[in-house]
Amino acid sequence: MFTGLVEAQGTVVGLEPQGDSVRLTVRGPEVVGDAEHGDSISVSGVCLTVVEHDAETFTADVMAQTLRMSTLGGLEPGQPVNLERAARVGDRLGGHIVQGHVDATARVLEVEDGTAWRRVRFALPDDLSALLVDKGSVTLEGVSLTVSGISDPGAAEGWFEVSLIPETLAATTLGAKVPGDAVNVETDVLARHVLRMRAVDAAAAAAGGSAGGAGGAGGGAHVGAPADAPAGRHAEVSS
Q: For residue range 76-129, what is the model confidence (pLDDT) as tens digits?
């Protein structure tokens, strides 16, 4: 569990293919000083497990699903990444509850600089539309942020925006993002649970209605997402 407050920017120093997975090594002395085998570290929003470490670097295995669903599949040596150690029980929750389970990636559409801030607009994947709300929380590249604008439901091309303060621009990799770049997106876990509960309730109601004179027994009907519900492909992406 993380809070979305990035502790440091690390640097990719090794990528070792292992079949359909990759062994990733990152230099990040700020986060490995107290690291132990099996600890969790968020790498640009993806929860990874430390399998090796020394005084300055740590190594983690990244499985095929993670490579496919996140930006980690496009990493190269020398590339910067955002790093955060798992939160301790009793710590202040400065951001919001972040699992490190990426839902999807989103591409930067526009970047606009203000006097002391930057507005960044991203394409909104259709299956995430119901999980983001104006003034709600979203995690981008492991950074806890507030949605400052979002397209209307049913818009031909969905989008959402965040506004970045100078500290975020300087301390995280988001300050270097330009139109066309992809970022990892994790929606609020509470929104995911609400969406799932609504889908299950709708499916159960539909199954009960189709039972006819079965007296509401249900006959062991399969409970799944209704046909018009958003695709529930929000897989947990971690290693």
A: 999 999 999 999 888 888 899 999 999 999 999 999 999 889 999 999 999 999
Contact (CB, 8 A) for 128 and 187:
yes
Q: The pTM is what?
A: 0.84
DSSP 166: H
Which one-letter amino acid corresponds to residue 142? Answer: G
Q: In terms of domains, do 109 and 182 share one? A: yes
Which two structure tokens, joined as six digits, stand for 213? 């004179």
pLDDT tens-digit readout, 196-234: 899 899 999 998 865 544 443 333 333 333 344 443 333
Q: Is residue 198 part of a domain?
A: no
Q: How far apart are the first and last CA of the chain?
A: 14
Give the phi and the psi of residue 26 in degrees, each rounded to 5: -125, 135
CATH number for the domain including 126? 2.40.30.20
Within a domain: 35: yes
Is the CB of residue 41 less than 8 Å from the CB of residue 85? Answer: yes
What range defines the domain where residue 66 resides?
8-85
Angle at 45 between CA 130 and CA 69, to 5 degrees: 65
CA max distance for the chain = 69
Q: Is 206 left (phi over 0), alpha (psi -120 to 50) or beta?
A: alpha
- The answer to whether residues 120 and 171 belong to one domain is yes
